[in-house]
From TrEMBL:
Pfam families: CRAL_TRIO. Residues 89-251 form the CRAL-TRIO domain. InterPro entries: CRAL-TRIO_dom, CRAL-TRIO_dom_sf, CRAL/TRIO_N_dom, CRAL/TRIO_N_dom_sf. PANTHER family: BINDING PROTEIN, PUTATIVE-RELATED (PTHR46277:SF3), OS03G0850700 PROTEIN (PTHR46277). This is CRAL-TRIO domain-containing protein.
Length: 255
């Protein structure tokens, strides 16, 4: 009886320390192996929880070697890009001033909702390095907004009014690389709405760089089915008002 209580106490402590425990035995075993391998090369592995390691494994179809390579690359990247643990807003003032990204509400699964406006991004008036920092700032804010036990977010990419002056292939590829390599398995679903025909020219360039797992999460929504489609996953009280819901948009820096 005492042993059973002790075991329960250990499990409770582990849950408190690491968050949700991994129930799948195979996943739990692979996470343990990968953690041990990576810890030998980078002791900062100890600072991340098991769910993060599992996300990297899932992004590489549970291949420990490939996932470890990606994860160690991420740890090195983080030390360079996030030495303070966050991106100061003073470093991305230009990108923030255009209110390109808003965040408010949660979908029916409890995932934070973020809306990005393609026509508010003008690469000729910006700085590529600042934009990369802005992408990291955005993803860090989204992750911080996730409820306990939730690992993903829902995004709406709004291309209303998008034109060639907004086209930024280099910026799109940089953002995609950051999302896939440094925040794998964080995107739950991406709705692309109000996409003009000319956007498909840029999309054809970017599409080959999107990994298979991410491609499955992207949905182009027809204008006539916009509100109905979004309401399938987002309650009316949480849906942004510009799409027929009741939630006012909030710039990400104010959320």
């Amino acid at each position: 009886m005492e042993k059973k209580e002790t075991k329960q106490h250990v499990v409770a402590e582990a849950e408190q320390e690491n968050g949700t425990l991994i129930e799948d035995e195979i996943e739990r075993s692979k996470v343990g192996i990968m953690r041990a391998l990576c810890d030998r090369q980078d002791p900062s592995t100890k600072e991340v929880d098991d769910l993060m390691i599992r996300r990297f494994l899932r992004a590489r179809d549970m291949d420990i070697e490939k996932a470890s390579t990606l994860f160690l690359k991420y740890l090195a990247w983080k030390k360079t890009v996030l030495p303070k643990g966050h991106i100061p807003e003073s470093e991305i003032a230009n990108d923030l001033s255009h209110n390109k990204v808003c965040m408010q509400g949660h979908d029916k699964m409890g995932r934070p909702i973020v809306v990005a406006f393609g026509n508010r991004h003008n690469p000729s008036k910006g700085n590529p390095e600042e934009f990369k920092r802005f992408v990291v700032y955005t993803l860090e804010k989204i992750c911080a907004r996730m409820p306990r036990g939730e690992e993903k977010f829902t995004a709406i990419g709004d291309l209303q009014g998008w034109g060639y002056s907004n086209c930024d292939i280099r910026g799109y590829l940089a953002a995609l690389s950051i999302l896939q390599d440094c925040y794998p398995e964080r995107l739950g679903k991406l709705y692309i709405v109000h996409a003009p025909y000319i956007f498909m020219t840029a999309w054809k360039v970017v599409y080959p760089f999107i990994d298979t797992n991410t491609k499955k999460k992207i949905v182009f929504v027809e204008n006539k089915k916009l509100t109905a489609t979004l309401l399938e996953d987002i309650d009316e009280t949480q849906l942004p008002d510009i799409y027929g819901g009741k939630m006012p948009l909030t710039p990400i820096q104010d959320s």
